[in-house]
Amino acid sequence: MSHRIVAACIAVLSLVAGLLVAATPQARSAPGDCPKIYVLAIPGTWANGSSPGIMSQVTSGLGPETQVAFVGYDATAFPWERAIYGKSKAQAVANTEGLALTMLRRCPGTRIALTGYSQGADAAGDVASEIGTGRARIRPGQVAGVVLISDPRRSRKDNLVGPPLRGEGSGGPRLDGMGWVLPRAFTICEPKDIYCNVPRDYYLTRIVGYLAETSNPTPSQILQYQAEASAIVGELLTRGGPGAIVGELSNKRARDQITSFSNFLQSGAHGTYTTFQVKPGVTAVQWAHNFLAGLA
Q1: pTM of the model as a whole
Q2: Angle of helix 203-213 versus helix 251-267 axis, rounded to 10
Q3: Which residues form the signal peptide (predicted)?
Q4: In a domain, 103, yes or no
Q5: What is the dihedral of CA 160, 164, 170, 172, to 10 degrees?
Q6: pLDDT at residue 6, as a whole number
Q7: In contact, 125 and 195? CB cutoff 8 Å
Q8: Residue 260 maps to a domain
Q9: CB-based burial label for 180 (10 Å; 0-12, 13-18, 19+)
Q10: Over 90: is that where the pLDDT of 267 sits?
């Protein structure tokens, strides 16, 4: 009898143990075939697909624990091309979030890193902002780091790498900033690059940037659009009321900003990030590469 009781107890214990094993949740650490860091790199306008431009240098040779994916999108800056700027950027944002979520579902222990240049930095920064402010399905803790080069929505509150700047991005700063990912998010801007460093009193240029950003409005960004429009108009009114607005749209003021933009294009400042040094002996591309390499 005692043998049967012992056998029954063993059987019950075995069954309970089996149920406990079955009920134990899977570990959240990444499996062996999962990267520690998943870098999503968004190229700039006209540097897309098989030709990711400086993003290839930023992400080359990051190490065995890091996987890199270049985000494809219909990159364009002008309405007469395949997609207007706002729609083009929205596509980049959606594609980036989709790739990140796909990886995190497969590899819950993997952490995401975001990087981008120019229009790609605009999109990468928006993704980081949505995550950092709780508006995305990705948690802030799942983001290892962010590095943006020539971000058209750079804010004076962002963590700047390189010499100090007086202006902000041509599209206006993000309303809520980077939120919880701010301590791990960095931005690089060549001082003469007006994509990311427009003087605050260049209102006409800021209006053009604002119109580009809102060329295909995203519902979740409506408050951002309203805030930037209010900031531009408010600053103009503070400077001198309706007369200041008329003056800003005058031929002379417009010519001054057009001349400035022409000088900027001729300077090639937007394309100097492989040589522009953020500190002695370290270029922007090298700094971004080293930052991403150090995340794993």
Answers
A1: 0.75
A2: 70
A3: 1-22
A4: yes
A5: 60
A6: 38
A7: no
A8: no
A9: middle
A10: no
HSE, CB side, 13 Å, CA atoms: give it for residue 271: 8
The DSSP secondary-structure symbol of 27 reads P
Tally of domains in the chain? 1
User: What are the residues whose beta carbons fall under 8 Å from the beta carbon of 106, sequence distance 6 or more?
Assistant: 34
Distance CA 279, CA 190 (A): 12
In a domain, 231, yes or no: no
Residues 6+ apart with CB under 8 A from 124: 40, 42, 96, 114, 115, 116, 146, 148
> Is residue 88 within 8 Å of residue 119, measured between CB atoms?
yes
DSSP state of 290: H
Do β-strands 66-70 and 111-117 pair in parallel, antiparallel, or remain unpaired?
unpaired
Of 98, 111, 144, 146, whose CA–CA distance to 125 is shortest? 146
* Tokens 């090639």, located at residue: 268
* Tens-digit pLDDT profile for residues 149-158: 999 999 999 9
Place of tokens 């993997």: 110
pLDDT at 28 over 50: no
Structure tokens at 140: 């802030």
pLDDT for 208-260, tens place per residue? 565 666 655 556 555 655 665 566 555 555 555 455 555 555 555 555 555 55
Alpha helices by DSSP H, the chain: 2-23, 54-59, 85-106, 119-132, 203-213, 222-240, 242-248, 251-267, 284-293
**Domain span at 176:** 37-198+269-294
Q: For residue 78, is it within any domain?
A: yes
